[in-house]
Amino acid sequence: MTENDKVEKGLFLPLMEEFYTIQGEGYHSGRAAYFIRIGGCDVGCHWCDVKESWNPKLHPPTDIQQIADHAAEYSKTIVITGGEPLMWNMEPITTLLKDKGLEVHIETSGAYTVSGNWDWFCLSPKKTKPPVKEAYEYAHELKVIIYNKHDFKWAEEHAARVGAHCKLFLQPEWSRREVMMDDIANYVMQNPKWQISLQTHKYIGIP
């Protein structure tokens, strides 16, 4: 089997980086977690803070056994992010991680067919490439990035599509956090089904 075949089957993944840190966003904010960042994304958000993840060819295809073994050394909570991880077959790596007794989370735009076995599915929809229908059904958490006031209406459109027990978060786009924070706070007070998510890892200066 060639390396390309292994990538196609999800046995190798374009690994951009892996690191142990504190989850800075959403429902599990403040929790220690091991992050696995997979390269490759064509969603194309203009405000993306990891544009270097977009081209998968820049990141070496890495054996998922090696990735899983590293992850298990650090934490019981594993977060797979990107890029857009669902561009790849996530079934093999999540199976390895679950077999090690680990709790496996994903952060995704939901723009691709869902694969993998997830304990926590964070859906963060993007306007440039909206989620597929099944992504809403998997979502434990809906995290909408707020860049301007029009995004509140867009957030509600997605909230109407997730399950009743899905946690709802509004998160200011980092470069607009001071501009939009009052509007987000007021909106949450008027619509308390939502909560505010902040990129706390950036405030405390960790990855």
From TrEMBL:
PROSITE patterns: RADICAL_SAM. Keywords: 4Fe-4S, Iron, Iron-sulfur, Lyase, Magnesium, Metal-binding, Queuosine biosynthesis, S-adenosyl-L-methionine. One of its GO terms (biological process) is tRNA queuosine(34) biosynthetic process. Its EC number is 4.3.99.3. Pathway: Purine metabolism; 7-cyano-7-deazaguanine biosynthesis. Residues 28-207 form the Radical SAM core domain. Gene3D superfamilies: Aldolase class I (3.20.20.70). Substrate binds at residues 22-24, 37, 81, 207. It catalyses: 6-carboxy-5,6,7,8-tetrahydropterin + H(+) = 7-carboxy-7-carbaguanine + NH4(+). [4Fe-4S] cluster binds at residues 41, 45, 48. It comes from the Bacteria. SUPFAM superfamilies: Radical SAM enzymes. It is an enzyme of class 4 (lyase). Binds 1 [4Fe-4S] cluster. The cluster is coordinated with 3 cysteines and an exchangeable S-adenosyl-L-methionine. Binds 1 S-adenosyl-L-methionine per subunit. Homodimer. This is 7-carboxy-7-deazaguanine synthase. The lineage of its organism: Bacteria, Pseudomonadati, Bacteroidota, Flavobacteriia, Flavobacteriales.
